[in-house]
Design brief:
The chain is mostly helical. It is about 80% helix and about 0% strand. The chain is globular, with a radius of gyration of 19 Å. It starts with a helix and ends with a helix.
Length: about 300
């Protein structure tokens, strides 16, 4: 892998973990994440003029885009509501890693993709085992009720949202390339359109949920700069990965290196947010990371 591609992936890793920790630190809510993501998309709106005209895209693309935005909104809501109830250093690895297990399983079940090999199966088992270790910070936590919490449920909602938009985005990007986009311009344009669509889905929900409406004054107090910085981090993370993929043929290495955001997120939660460290948390993170590397490579 070229030094430039490596640097882009590592920067993306830190940025992805960073916006999650910022979201937790700044009163996590769907309102904050959706408005931040939408503001990032608005600032990058000129990118939609890259490549062929939007009018050249087929009607099916806009349907996939709408579904992708809905899944993104569910992902952000799941993250925000999980972070409001638990620790980033436990919930971020679960929300980040479980889709690596779920996407191949859904692809096999619904899309008829190839069956998993032995390494994939072992890797997925390690990911699940690591996720189960993360909440076990003390002996009293070793019971079923530790996992049956609202925070864990919302983390699973975030993971399900990720599975949805991951599979949908692949279809949408393929349609863009058929319309004349390169892989880079397709990724850049879709990144912006997805942010706008996610905000479009989120606004009616924010108006319907009293708890989310009550968060709006706190978001205003945090200031526009914090909102925009978080939003740019959210939107640009995906763009950096696309650029790295364009600079190297070693796709599996890019996929594997992206999983470094899991230990980075755990460290940020422990060191920056002062969340408790534990042997179970460290062991769970390492077990999960080893499983992700097996699946990615």
């Amino acid at each position: 892998m070229s030094p430039a591609a490596l640097a882009l992936v590592l920067f993306s890793v830190c940025m992805h973990a960073g916006w999650n920790v910022l979201g937790k630190r700044n009163a996590p809510s769907l309102a904050f994440f959706a408005l931040a993501y939408g503001s990032g998309g608005a600032l990058l709106l000129p990118l939609v003029w890259l490549g062929p005209s939007l009018a050249a895209l087929p009607n099916a693309f806009w349907g996939w885009l709408a579904l992708s935005g809905l899944c993104q909104m569910l992902y952000m809501g799941g993250l925000a509501w999980a972070y409001a109830r638990g620790e980033v250093s436990v919930l971020y690895p679960i929300a980040r890693a479980l889709p690596v297990v779920l996407v191949p399983l859904v692809s096999i079940a619904l899309l008829g993709n190839r069956a998993l090999d032995v390494a994939d199966g072992i890797g997925m088992a390690l990911v699940v085992a690591g996720a189960l270790c993360l909440p076990l910070s003390h002996p009293e936590a070793r019971r079923l009720s530790t996992y049956l919490t609202p925070a864990m449920g919302f983390a699973l909602l975030a993971a399900a949202g990720t599975v949805g938009y991951s599979l949908i985005d692949k279809q949408a990007l393929a349609l863009m390339q058929l319309a004349g986009h390169s892989s880079l311009t397709a990724g850049a344009v879709f990144m912006v359109l997805q942010a706008v669509m996610t905000l479009t889905w989120a606004i009616p929900l924010l108006m319907l949920l009293p708890t989310e409406r009550r968060r709006l004054p706190a978001i205003r107090q945090q200031g526009l700069v914090m909102l925009v910085v978080t939003g740019l981090m959210m939107t640009c993370t995906y763009g950096l990965v696309l650029m790295a993929l364009a600079l190297t043929d070693e796709v599996s290495y890019v996929v594997a290196l992206r999983q470094l955001s899991i230990p980075v997120g755990v460290l940020m939660g422990v060191l920056w947010l002062k969340e408790p460290a534990s042997t179970a948390k460290a062991a769970g993170t390492l077990i999960m990371l080893s499983g992700l590397l097996l699946v990615a490579l």
